[in-house]
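Retry 2 of 3 after timeout on previous attempt. Resubmitting C-alpha cells to design endpoint.
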C-alpha cells in the first residue's frame, strides 16, 4: 500500500475500525508492563537525589504526564489542520476523543508539579513561566471540551474546535522554551535530543520507561475511544448495523 492509498483510506472510519481491533489490546498490554516496571524501578530501586532526596521521585509521574499533555495537544492541532483542509471525518473524531485524555494529563501534571513544588520551592503554586503556560494549556483543553458541547451542530462544532486546536498549538513552544526565555524557578528539560541526560542512568532509565508506558497508555485510550466514537457517529450506516447484528448472534 502506497502512502497516498493509506492517506485516502484514513478518510474511511470503517477501514480504521476494521484494522484497529488489536491495536488497543497491544498498546494496553505494553502500557501495563512498562508502567509497572518503570514505576517500581523509579520509586523503589533508583537512588535518592543528592539535593532533593526522595521528593524527586514525583518526576516519574510528573514528567510523563506533562509530555503527554503537550503531545496530545499537538495531535489535536494536526487533526484540526487535516479537518480544515481535507474535511476528513476521522480527524474530527481524533480531535474529539483526545480532549478528555489531554485534559486529565494536564491536570495530573499541574497537581504533581504542585506536590513537588511545596517541599522544593516552599509553595504549592508560583506564577512561574512553565507552570503558567501549562495552566493555559489546561484552559485550552477545557475550552475545546466546552465549545464542542455548546455548539449543537456536529460539523460546525468540529470546525470551531479545529480552529481553536490549531491556534492553541502556539502555546506548546512557549511551554517548552519558557525556562530558556524567562527567568524561572522551574528546572530545564529532563530529556533533550541534542544532549545527554544530566541524571545518572539508574535515575533516567526508569523515567524513560515510564514515558514510553504513558505513550502506550495514550495509544490504548485513543484507539478505544476512537472505535466507540466511530460506532456512535456511524450507527445508522449499513456496515455498523451488520456489525451489531453479527455481534448479537
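Retry 2 succeeded. Sequence:
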Amino acid at each position: 500500500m502506497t502512502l497516498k492509498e493509506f492517506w485516502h483510506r484514513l478518510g474511511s472510519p470503517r477501514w480504521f475500525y476494521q484494522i484497529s481491533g488489536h491495536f488497543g489490546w497491544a498498546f494496553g498490554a505494553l502500557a501495563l508492563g512498562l508502567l509497572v516496571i518503570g514505576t517500581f524501578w523509579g520509586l523503589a530501586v533508583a537512588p535518592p537525589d543528592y539535593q532533593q532526596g526522595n521528593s524527586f521521585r514525583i518526576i516519574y509521574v510528573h514528567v510523563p504526564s506533562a509530555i503527554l499533555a503537550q503531545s496530545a495537544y499537538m495531535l489535536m492541532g494536526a487533526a484540526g489542520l487535516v479537518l480544515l483542509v481535507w474535511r476528513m471525518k476521522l480527524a474530527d473524531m481524533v480531535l474529539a476523543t483526545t480532549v478528555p485524555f489531554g485534559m486529565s494529563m494536564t491536570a495530573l501534571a499541574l497537581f504533581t508539579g504542585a506536590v513537588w513544588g511545596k517541599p522544593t520551592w516552599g509553595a504549592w503554586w508560583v506564577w512561574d513561566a512553565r507552570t503558567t503556560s501549562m495552566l493555559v494549556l489546561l484552559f485550552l483543553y477545557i475550552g475545546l471540551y466546552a465549545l464542542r458541547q455548546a455548539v449543537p451542530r456536529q460539523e460546525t462544532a468540529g470546525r470551531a474546535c479545529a480552529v481553536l486546536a490549531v491556534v492553541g498549538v502556539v502555546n506548546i513552544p512557549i511551554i517548552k522554551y519558557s525556562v530558556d526565555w524567562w527567568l524561572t524557578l522551574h528546572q530545564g528539560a529532563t530529556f533533550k535530543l541534542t544532549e545527554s541526560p544530566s541524571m545518572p542512568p539508574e535515575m533516567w532509565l526508569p523515567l524513560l520507561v515510564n514515558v514510553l508506558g504513558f505513550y502506550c497508555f495514550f495509544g490504548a485510550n485513543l484507539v478505544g475511544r476512537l472505535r466507540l466514537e466511530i460506532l456512535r457517529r456511524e450507527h445508522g450506516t449499513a456496515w455498523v448495523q451488520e456489525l451489531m447484528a453479527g455481534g448479537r448472534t
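Attempt log closed. The first helix runs from residue 3 to 9.
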